[in-house]
Write a structure and sequence with these properties.
By secondary structure, the chain is an alpha/beta fold. It has eight helices and nine strands. Helix 1 packs across helix 7.
């Protein structure tokens, strides 16, 4: 996570952070893209979600996700500690509401969530920036899912079916990036974030 730093607008008041909501079908390369951009751009934090699924090889608790039990997740939901949550591929995913505190400190925040969660966030935070990462084709997506490993044939089939449904929601996002080449897609994502930081209403906001 990039070190927090206070940003001041030209009028001398502290700038409020921007919420970037990024969605994509499983296997589109969203996690890799976000990881690259967060490492490069200062003042950009990644929201760590909670999930009831088991970690994949190489994933770290507290860094990639908070891997918790169904009972722990339900307790957080009952106590209104989640900004949004949804069932995805048979597992629960949710965004801790406490993650949004960095926005008041002047940091920008990236939410890596599915289209269900993004719809809920849009209703609560309409001035967020919504970005959809799209694969060049469903065949490419299938190849990436199989190459990634860790998923059964049944799981791959479910993810592909869900991807077809999710792609129907791409039209209401503010931006769409087709991840044909990871380097070009990374540049596109960085450009969007940099441009949004320079929008007049954000720079001049008190």
């Amino acid at each position: 996570m990039s070190p927090k730093r206070e940003r001041i607008d030209p009028m001398g008041t502290k700038r409020k952070g921007i919420l970037f909501v990024i969605s994509a079908p499983s296997g589109a390369g969203k996690t890799t893209l976000i990881g690259r951009v967060v490492r490069v751009l200062q003042g950009l934090s990644l929201s760590v979600s909670c999930t009831t699924r088991r970690p994949r090889p190489g994933e770290v608790h507290g860094k990639d996700y908070f891997f918790i039990s169904m009972e722990e997740f339900q307790d957080m939901a009952d106590k209104k500690m989640l900004l949004e949550w949804a069932m995805v591929h048979g597992m629960l995913y949710g965004t801790p509401a406490s993650n949004l505190k960095v926005l008041d400190e002047g940091d920008d925040l990236v939410l890596d969530i599915d289209t269900q969660g993004a719809t809920l966030i849009k209703r609560q935070i309409p001035d967020g920036v919504f970005i959809y990462i799209m694969p060049p084709s469903l065949k490419t997506l299938e190849d990436r899912l199989r190459a990634r490993g860790g998923d059964s044939e049944e799981a791959v089939a479910i993810r592909l079916r869900n991807a077809e449904k999710e792609l129907d929601h791409a039209g209401w996002y503010d931006y769409i990036i087709i991840n044909k080449d990871i380097d070009e897609a990374s540049k596109a994502l960085q450009s969007i974030i940099i441009a949004e930081r320079s929008r007049a209403h954000r720079v001049l906001a008190s």
